[in-house]
Amino acid sequence: MQTKIENVLNIKHISVVFDGFKALTDVDIQVKRNTIHFFIGPNGAGKTTLLDIICAKTKPTSGTVHFYPQNGSDLRLTGMKEYKIVNEGIGRKFQVPSVFVELTVIENMMLSLKGHKGVWNSIFYKLSKEEEKQIMTVLEKVGLEGRRDVPAGSLAHGEKQWLEIAMQLVQKPEIIMLDEPAAGMGKPETFRTGELLQEIKKDCTVIVVEHDMEFVKQIADTVTVLHEGKVLMEGDITDVLADQTVQAVYLGRGGERNAEH
């Protein structure tokens, strides 16, 4: 039986150099299965570049990323095509929601179901009862079951973010990567998003790039602090925020939002 704390992702000796600029230098991170793992750090620390490496949007100059699926052999993600990584169960949501605003919530969900190719095919596709149940289960999880026939463009900002998370979840990923999911949200929406991610981690490992320290404190299992492309510290959020070097890095740039508290 597989243990809950085993690694689902192994980032090993990753370095990235862009035209002489070292974006990442010898980064080593292990991500445990069914946890919420945050990458934090000042702007330019290399957080988003690291997500780009995991999903093969960017190629590393050196190093490898290995993924250990729940069932099946380990996979070397480095060198794989982006779409293949998605098919293997690694989803990513970018900071700006990329929902189809003219389509309804359920039509957006239909688009995300594996195997449905193209907008028109998806819209005129008849859902099986099993697929509809799958979609509605996910919409219920994110609190949008009552909004299924509403155009996505009329959703509030937080609801759009939750819809996009739902569009990832319906594909049943083993890892979901989120780039600043709390950006632009008020406190109640941010707290609700935290509760949602804690629910999601029961079935799926969550990797988050975030600046809002209150949000990080609410739900983080592990926090990796990046600074100038290197791992500065990793551990529990309380220990990380109490560390003088971490405080100096944040306070040295005018303070990350809430980081000094």
Automatic annotation (TrEMBL):
CDD domains given in the database record: ABC_Mj1267_LivG_branched (cd03219)
Top-level taxon of origin: Bacteria
MF terms in GO: ATP binding; ATP hydrolysis activity
ABC transporter domain location: 9-253
Keyword annotations of the record: ATP-binding, Nucleotide-binding, Transport
Presence of the UniProt keyword Transport in the record: yes
Any Gene Ontology CC annotation: plasma membrane
PANTHER family, sorted: CONSERVED COMPONENT OF ABC TRANSPORTER FOR NATURAL AMINO ACIDS-RELATED, HIGH-AFFINITY BRANCHED-CHAIN AMINO ACID TRANSPORT ATP-BINDING PROTEIN
Name the record gives this protein: Urea transport system ATP-binding protein
Organism: Hespellia stercorisuis DSM 15480
Lineage: Bacteria, Bacillati, Bacillota, Clostridia, Lachnospirales
